Amino acid sequence: MTYITEQPNISFDGLGIAPKIIETLDKMRFAHPTPIQHKAIPIGIEGKDIIGVAQTGTGKTLAFAIPIIQHLSKKKGRCLVLTPTRELAIQVDETFRKIAPIFGIKTVVIIGGASMNLQLKALKYNPGVLIATPGRLVDHMERRTVHLHDIDFLVLDEADRMLDMGFKPQIDHILKVIPRNRQTMLFSATIPADVIAIAAHHMKLPVHIEVAPSGTAPELIAQEIFIVKKEAKKYLLEKLLSQYHGPVLIFLRTKIGARKITRHIRENGHKAAEIHSDRSLSQRKEALAGFKDGRYRILVATDIAARGIDVAGIELVINYDLPDDIEQYVHRIGRTGRAGHEGRAVSFATPDQGKEVRNIEKLIKIALPITEHPDLPRENFVQEHKQTYSFAPRNKRRRGRHGLRKIRSRGR
Question: Which fold has domain 221-407?
Answer without folding.
Answer: Rossmann fold (3.40.50)
